[in-house]
Amino acid sequence: MHRVGKGELSARIGRVPARDEIGAVAQHLDWLLEQVQERDRQLRSWNDALNQRVDQRTAELREANEKLEQTFRQLVMSEKLASIGEITAGVAHEINNPVAVIMGNVDVIRQTLGENAEPVATELALIDRQVSRIEVIVGKLLKFAAPSEFSDCEHNIALRPLVQDCLVLVDHLISRGGVEVHCTFEEVPPVRADSGEVQQVVVNLVVNAVQAMQGAGRLDLHLAEAERDGVAGVALSVSDSGPGVPDDLLGSLFDPFFTTKPGEGTGLGLSISQTLIQRAGGIITVRNRAEGGAAFTVWLPQTPEDGDDP
């Protein structure tokens, strides 16, 4: 009894030769100790199972909370895109009229002055370039405001050859920058999307990655099957070895007109990319890699077996 009181539940009296009351008490006590030890074993087992369930539920709640926050951010972004889209559509159309007038008058100046326009040829050429820049920005604004107007019909596309074609398109930038490209392409099912839009997104991500490295670096592209919220799909990851994105700016990268390259970009590339991917039922995310650099991941749902829209 003293040993049991100290916590040694396995202690037993054992066989007692006596057949009197002491022997009966000894046997009964050993039987009670067996019951106590079994109850203790069950309680410990239940406790372990309860802790496992608590840990599992905690992990599930954490994951659900992350999804909720991500959904909230997407809803906020959708509202921003809707509001800004209405404004930019009107602004873009209004800008086209004075731009056309400027271009027409510059041509009239050249024709009127003839050879006398030579002293201001540099200035006139500068006007041409800036007007062309305005046209490019207006085109991006229109595509950002109403991407469906510029979209072809969706169809089943294979991402592997599409990504390879995109690398060919930007090969001059990659070669000029001395960037080393590493591709890991697994066999993946087709996705249902507009090939031109997906190509635009991939080219934009690759160009951004090359520019972020500002010279020699490593560009990694990984294509594989990936499931998201129980939906089968395909994920394309574009990673660079650049400095990465400051943590306080990660949440603003997809905001319209936000740019980390003031004076160089319009800040619409990633916003348009996000809009195009969301229209196809996918999602685009960004994170900083532990080894350095940023990684953008485009996820698209795979084409259903029956061929219907996902």
Automatic annotation (TrEMBL):
Q: What is its EC number?
A: 2.7.13.3
Report the superkingdom from the record.
Bacteria
Which class of enzymes does this protein belong to?
transferase
Q: Which Gene3D superfamilies match?
A: 1.10.287.130, Histidine kinase-like ATPase, C-terminal domain
Which residues does the UniProt record annotate as the domain Histidine kinase? 90-304
| Coiled coil segments of this chain | 47-81
Entries under SUPFAM superfamilies matching the protein: ATPase domain of HSP90 chaperone/DNA topoisomerase II/histidine kinase (SSF55874), Homodimeric domain of signal transducing histidine kinase (SSF47384)
Please identify the protein, giving its name as recorded.
histidine kinase
Question: Species name for this entry?
Answer: Sulfitobacter indolifex HEL-45
